[in-house]
Please model this.
Amino acid sequence: MDSDYLTKAKDILKKYHQEHLLYFYDELSDDEKNKLLNQILSIDFEQIFRLYDNSMTNNFALTQELSPLEHFEKSSFSKSEIDRYVSIGENVLKQNSFAVVTMAGGQGSRLGYHGPKGTYLLNLKPVKKSLFQIMCEDILRANKKYSITIPWFIMTSDENDMATKEFFEVNNYFGYPRDSVTFFKQGKLPIINVDRNLMLQEPYLIREASNGNGNVFLSMSKNGILDEMKKLGIKWISFGGIDNVLLKNVDPLLLGLTIDKNEQIASKSIFKKEPLEKTAVYCKKDGKPAILDYCDIDLELSEKKDENGKFLYREANMLSHLMSIDAVDKVSKIELPYHRAYKKNSFVNDEGVKQVPDKPNSFKFENFIFDAFLYFDNMILLRVNADEEFAPIKDFTGIYNPDTAKEKYLKFWKSAEV
Ligand code: UTP
Model:
């Protein structure tokens, strides 16, 4: 590596008071030195400190005008309504114009599991299934039912891309036609600790992490995924996370409903039972579809009902979305805002010892997928039954843990087989 690079890197670090990142430089191998200098030169320090400083001064008071977002309830559709929507949706599926995107680039920091979250094995005694396998089986069921092969796109991140691909290889892609599986990497940003410093993950590596599931649109465009989808004739795309073991990636009902109502985007929701549960709900902000964070919801708002006694702000987000290719194209050109998340991230201390925190110690900056909805006048929101479609795994101790997910998964499939 050119000594110019070292000088340049030192200048940058000095400007942003980050000289500690070269603390172990002299002890590194030539390869490691190169790696570290390249990383320093590729990081946009201006951007990350701007995000950090703005996130400290922003007050998150709700300044926009709030109104409810209307929703449909699957349970109140008549049989003929369901048949009609499903038939519209099935026609689209049979025309091979539907794709699935699984967002699996997250850190899974709350679960604290070593490896990509999708490789986590759920113990469904006597068998164990990884979250990737569960997702794959869900799409394969639709393939079989409609005699199609749905193109499956999986978003990974720098941190977990290699391990994810290896896992698919070792498991023979769980029987999915491998030509129809495409991986693409999302963007990343450095993590900042509470002292406003970047951290070393290894003596030669600055800790960076995926920049949120809302980066999916930009990443699809940057990685040529959007072009590929257009070439394949894809018209509708379903987006879901990797950690909901009851996620229905392919839902002709939602698809048909959205097409019938002439909308471009749709989401599923579940009813928020407890008024003050820490869950974000759907709403409209300044007349546009949006998400209302739980911090902005008080008891009065949560208890608000319309004249028919229906709650106005109780439709909880479950990270299950549907968008037309045109809608995705549109938002892939928009820079979504960044939100700050407080997370646990291990780091190398001044003595060169790896520290694993037992509580959050650093900030991650993330785009959220639902911020894209603000760019549309309306959307379809369909409330589904949480027992049938929502069993996420978030951590080992909260309500969304592997045991609760396993229980719901087994219960659902037992009743589905009867
Ligand atoms: P979460 O917000 O639950 O984050 O992601 P996470 O990374 O899985 O876990 P924590 O918060 O660190 O504990 C919801 C979904 O969005 C994906 C995740 O992989 C998961 O499927 N996601 C999240 C991404 O694809 N990229 C990201 O940058 C963040």
